Structures are given as C-alpha cells and as structure tokens.
Amino acid sequence: MAPYLYDFSPERLVIGKFCQIADGVVFITASANHRYDGISSFPFAVFGGGPVEGRPSMPGPGPDTIVGNDVWIGQGARIMPGAQLGDGVIVGAGAVVSGRISPYSVIAGNPSRLVRMRFGPAEIDALEQIAWWDWPIDRILANEQLIVGADVAGLSAVARG
Q1: Active-site residue among 17, 34, 100, 139?
Q2: Which three-class secondary structure state does DSSP give residue 105?
Q3: Least crowded by CB within 10 Å, which of 12, 71, 95, 117?
C-alpha cells in the first residue's frame, strides 16, 4: 500500500520484477512529508484554493522510492521515503527501512539493520550480471532449479549460453 502517493505527487514508487510483498507492507513516499522549516508544519493546501503543486505549505519534491528485482518484503514492513532496495534484498517482518540497501542483503528491525549478506561480493556481482529476471518466462521456468538454488556458478554457466 502506498497511501501517500497522490495524483499530484512528483516522486515515483518503482518496484522491480518478481518481488514478493507481504500483507500490511506500507510504502511511505515523500509526499507524506510536511514542511518543518517554518512556524507551522500544517499542509494548508488540503483546504483547496487551487492546485496543490507549488503551494507554500507543501514540501518540495522528494526522492523516488526504488525496490529492485526479486525483493522479498515481510509482513508489516514500512519502506520510508527515498529508500532504495537493491536486487535480491530480503526485508524482515515489521522492519522500518530507509536509505540505500545493498543487493542481496537481509535486513530486519526498527530501524532496519543488516543481518547478513546472502552471497559473497563475487557472487553478487555475477547475479547482477545474470539478471535472470529479464529472461523470457520460458527460460526462467526451464532453469527454475538453478534460480531458486544457491549454485551461482551453475546459473552463470546457463546465462553464458
């Protein structure tokens, strides 16, 4: 759910391929923010009086929120404005995620912290090059065993042809 991604929101929520998003996950996009640099943080534009864009009570544009490919986000997680989750990230249930999360990280907690890496640096580089999520579905299904397994070298061999 992205309850604060309005029609007038300048930021985007980008979700990659083959992501698994559990029940109760909330994407809190930048349009949920309020100005806090003045006397009041109230968004007076909600009362109408013309377009919302450019109104003095509204914050400036915020960053896009990006979720990579093959990301698993556990139940009740909160993804904060501008978070960037790399490919293959696993987010624990109830985590509050902000900032840039490296590919193939396992994160959990509030605030989220790195629990462990799923693979070593060389394997992560190989997986990013393989990008199996961009393959045609028939090729993915033909290589399902390798894709869900942990044999990065074997999957690399298939990817090379």
Answers
A1: 34
A2: strand
A3: 12
pTM: 0.90
Same domain, 84 and 70: yes
Question: Is 159 exposed, middle or buried, given 0-12, 13-18 or 19+ CB atoms closer than 10 A?
Answer: middle
Q: What is the largest CA-CA distance in the chain?
A: 62
Note the pLDDT tens digit of each residue in 17-67: 999 999 999 999 888 888 888 899 998 887 877 777 778 888 878 899 999
- Identify whether residues 8 and 84 lie together within a single domain: yes
Which residues are bridge partners to 107 per DSSP?
91, 114
Domain that holds residue 16: 1-118
pLDDT tens digit sequence for 98-151: 999 999 999 999 999 999 999 999 999 999 999 999 999 999 999 999 999 999
For residues 72 and 21, state if they share a domain.
yes
